[in-house]
Amino acid sequence: MKIEEIRGKTDAELDFELESMKKELFDLRFRTASETAANPARIRVLRRNIARANTILHERRKGIRGQEAK
């Protein structure tokens, strides 16, 4: 997910996406621990997307970089 896509979403949409990404990350970690993962690079991508979403939500709440809550 690109940063422009994240900035274009509302706070509610970002919260929903964040929860689904966290659930997927948990499932991937669980499968990796119990068996071999099909795509281990997906864990890295999910972690970065979660960080991006959290950063945008934080910027909006604090009013940083002209971000306003949507």
Overview features:
single chain; 70 residues; mainly alpha; Helix Hairpins
CATH T-level topology: Helix Hairpins
CATH architecture classification: Orthogonal Bundle
Shape: elongated
Number of strands: 0
Order of helices and strands: HHH
Low-confidence stretches: none
Counting structural domains, the number is 1
Helical percentage: over 70%
Mean pLDDT: 90
Q: Can you give a write-up of this model?
A:
With 70 residues, the chain is mostly helical. The protein has one domain: Helix Hairpins (Orthogonal Bundle). Helices cover 73% and strands 0% of the residues. It contains 3 helices and no strands. Helix 2 (11-34) runs antiparallel to helix 3. The longest helix has 24 residues, at 11-34. The protein is elongated. It starts with a helix and ends in an 8-residue tail after the last helix.
